[in-house]
Amino acid sequence: MATKEKSRKLTERKQNALSGYLFVSPFFILFAIFGLFPMVFSFYLSFFRWDGLTPMTYVGLKNFEIIFNDSIFFSSIWNTFLMGIMGTFPQIIVALLLAFALNSALIRFSNTFRTLVFLPYITSVVAVAIIFSLIFNNQSFGLVNYILSMFDVEPIRWNQEYWPVKIAISTMVFWRWVGYNTIIFLAGMQSIPKELYEAAKIDGASIGQQIRLVTLPMLKPVLMFVVFTATIGALQLFTEPFIFLGRGLREEGITMVAYLWRDAFGYNSFGTASAAAIVLFAIIIVITAINLLITNRVGRSKKVQ
Amino acid sequence: MKNFLKLLLAALFTVSILVACGGGDEDSNADSSEDDNAEEAGTETTEAQIGSDDAEVELVFWEFGNTGYDVLIEEYVEANPHVSINLINQDMNDLHDNLFTSISAGSGAPDIAMVEEAQIERFKVAEDQFYNLYDLGADQVEGDFLEWVWRSGQNGEGSFQFGLPTDIGPTVMFYRTDVFEEAGYDSSPEAVSELLSTWEDFANVAQEINDKTGALMTDAGELVYNARRDQATETYFNSDDEFILEENNQIKDAYDYVADLFDAGLVGDIPLWTPEWFAGMDDASYAVFLGPAWMQGVIKDNSPEEGIWSITTMPEGAGNWGGSYLTLPSEGENSEEAYAFIEWLTAPEQQFKAFQGYGLFPSTPAVYEMTEFQEYEDSYFGGLNTAQVFSEAAEAVIPVYKGRNYYPVDDEIKEALDNVSSGSDREDEWEAMLDRVGSVLERQ
């Protein structure tokens, strides 16, 4: 009797486990097809020469040799980091302030402003490209050049010069993503109990102190999420340089993903593109590990307080 | 150590999830085409199902640019009610990327795909992915087409025909009569052609026009380079696909010539297919526009007033820029119906209609003999017999072998020219360009 019951229990547990696996399987199946397989396949591809149409030939480490001898590859890594920093940090700070303003009771029509702030995120990329190519135009009639000309600054060639390219692209990144992060922050802020602010106000805290001592600590998980996604997003930056520079993707503004895209679809060289993807993969893992490490440290020190 | 490994694993997992989630973003961009090979800078994909819903055969047809084929297809399905055609218009670069991906993956290709003249080289390694049109009866119509156009649509041995030619792009000189008159020249096509019969004349007149009116010769120096490039007898690769740019003086001369014009401040550096480039066509800030026949649609759209623009021959002959082929990817199941349709669409009568519609210049010489064609006058260009000018240019075209790496090399030269226009040293830029091209070719 006892053994029978035990075995039935086991099957029940197995059944439970099975249904559990069944429930989570859609994600894992999709992930295996669209995430894991391409990843594994690009590891495999990086040792081959393949133009996408003819059979592959094994070339060993030749693809890595080619990209490591290409100065543009190193420019692309450096550009990615520079533009990541230039696009991400100001964006997080501004998003935080905007979210705080939108969350405060002082602002009227806050729903309207919330919608407006989110608009850039849903704007068609083509429209963004046209607008930004007019704002950051090389000619003296470009908007920024025109404004600069009032201060006697010579027209800047926005898509050719080293820093201007990065400034222009970072501005696009900033403009497109600041609203998205604002909304995330706003959601986080709205989950902070009002009582905390009231208590702070009664204790005589200024707005600055409220942000620093109430909002920020309570917002830490959201902040971490935003920093995380922004870092990954910055490392995978592609759309903005692509629409700003066109298919030529000049060295001054090419990013790592743009570099591997150009190898694959501009030059039909899927082997070197995969090799570049693997280097990118390694870099992202290292950065994410550092990110996690910092997050853990910060979390621990807080508990001590 | 154990903690570190855990951390690394966690990082790996997080990354893979985030990568998987973020993956969709990259492909969603629509490219604002800046390539000079784009026939039209359209970026939207439009789809039209033409023909009855219960037709036995449905053909999917990918096209790019402004072809006006929708009207012709209406005509075809009316005569052939058992066929319906799903016409999908895409941006030119997107179309070729999509076709490449679907052929490489072995699924998703249309029944009929329009492929641009220089892009077709990229697909020639994949004979097994296309129907050989010779097997479907293309030898019957071979004689209808210009020989060099036909040749460019087949493999090296001439045994495999990838596509039927639609149009060609003989290059001519569009010019603004008002600017020439202001500078004190006779603005009739004959006089302008006479005035600008050599590239040396072109540079001298550019200087005079600039002195007298302040206008530039042209706003995109790139177009002057393209014009001279398309006149060259060899460009970047020889017919054995060997890289010959370093020894090819014709291209270096073209490069130096444009660099001189930049240095003298006689040509502008506006990138093609940008809003400011389109806008420039309507103000009298420059005198000439060197471009192929199909460019007339672009000019008409952007500068609607009649009688300002006119057309004449280019200095020192003509070249060919663009034009396309209709190919049948082997994935399509109705090759015979598809072939019947493309044979009809590229027949002289239909090519003439496409010329009337959007200025697509016919690749079938029979059209040049039609009286309607010879007498075709375009009131936009001051009642000029445009067909005449384009036919003359078409006859002067010397076919050039391009090779599959033509556009990557061309892009690097354009980048060098761009840098020269902003004041960099031309020899340094030339060397830097050769370096970049070397690195690209190493991958092949």
UniProtKB/TrEMBL annotation, chain A:
Pfam families from the UniProt entry: BPD_transp_1 (PF00528)
Alphabetic keyword roster: Cell membrane, Membrane, Transmembrane, Transmembrane helix, Transport
Keyword check for Zinc: no
GO cellular component: plasma membrane
Domain ABC transmembrane type-1: start-end pairs: 77-291
Protein localization: Cell membrane
Topology of the protein relative to the lipid bilayer: Multi-pass membrane protein
GO biological process per UniProt: transmembrane transport
Residue ranges of the TM segments: 21-47, 81-103, 115-136, 167-187, 222-245, 265-294
SUPFAM superfamilies: MetI-like
Database matches in PANTHER family: ABC TRANSPORTER PERMEASE PROTEIN (PTHR30193), INNER MEMBRANE ABC TRANSPORTER PERMEASE PROTEIN YCJO (PTHR30193:SF37)
Stated family: Belongs to the binding-protein-dependent transport system permease family.
Protein's name in the database: Cellobiose transport system permease protein
Organism, as annotated: Gracilibacillus halotolerans
UniProtKB/TrEMBL annotation, chain B:
Organism: Gracilibacillus halotolerans
Keywords: Signal
Signal peptide positions (record): 1-20
Family matches, as SUPFAM superfamilies: Periplasmic binding protein-like II
Ranges where the record places region Disordered: 24-50
UniProt protein name: Cellobiose transport system substrate-binding protein
PROSITE patterns according to UniProt: PROKAR_LIPOPROTEIN (PS51257)
Biased composition (Acidic residues): 24-42
Pfam families the UniProt entry points to: SBP_bac_8
